[in-house]
Please model this.
Amino acid sequence: MIYLDNSATSWPKPPRVKEAMVRFMEDVGANPGRSGHRLSIEAARVMYEAREALASLFHAKDPLRIVFTLNATESINLALKGLLRPGDHVITSSMEHNSVMRPLRHLGGDGIELTVIPCSKEGVLDPGDVKKKIKSDTRMVVLTHASNVTGAMLPIREVGALTRKHNLLFLVDSAQTAGACPIDMEKDGIDLLAFTGHKSLYGPQGTGGLVIGERIQEKEMIPLKEGGTGSRSEFEEQPDFLPDCFESGTPNGPGIAGLLAGLQFVLAEGVEKIRQQEGRLIEKLIAGLRVLPGVKLYGPENGKQRIATLSFNIEGRTPSDVSTHLERKFSILCRPGLHCAPAAHRTLGTFPEGTVRFSLGAFNTEAEVNSVINAVSKISKAARGR
Model:
């Protein structure tokens, strides 16, 4: 079996991830911050080590400004609904995932204005187009770091510099890039970084978080939920300090233990090394598919402008048909359709059927890429009756 659906969730995970989760369940198992005994203290230590590892990865100054959530979607909702107010104007791109688009469309009913900047047919954003749309009431720019459809990387650092110059907030959705591409909160001008743990951080599902930059006062953000935090238990009002104010309820201790193990894998391998390895594989895949008759590729041709995700279609075959054939005949697992990003597919001109998506990870190999190219070649020949 060849697994090429890492944009949905990475697989396999490093063995240490499962081992850390089992160890937590067998040897710790307690509720962090809710008791004073040694097991509760150990659980809290695991959580703090995960915050420290994330701070190191993202070059964040204060680990306590990293809030754990269930996933990037919850993190994005916390940032948008916690900070935006009626009368605010928000700028985003046409390549966004529904995790960004749906809460923004919902907030439009609450008096928040949205501008969606069209990207090119390759899914590339011109920073100058962002500058043109800034108004006196613009409050925030929200961008994905890389498209989950084409793999096209958006100009985060250039837009970050622009938002700092105009004193705007900058929220980045790093669901596709955290662990796979270098991210520097300060150099990239990021105020809010939403990440998920189960993709290129190689942690388990149900883990994620929001890194809150120092330009944001936590008291100005409205929590998505209130409740027990294990701190200030004498008060019935929500704590007003990080990270407790946004972390109500028992956390996913086993999941965070697994996330820490995934982070340790990424930090030990090195993000730059992972990026180079995945870059070589995606360039080889693109080179092999580009020359096949009847196969259309989407996204930037330059490997440096993309992550290891590629969308394509085969003339005369639907995406779902191609995906099914790849699994049944060649045991290649991928994802067809709209990938929860209809705006991106409208940008590419592939709406409503979508595309077939291959997304590689740290555990894919050159031999697998060769097999995938051969499989697509056979399907394209069959579609042309040869």
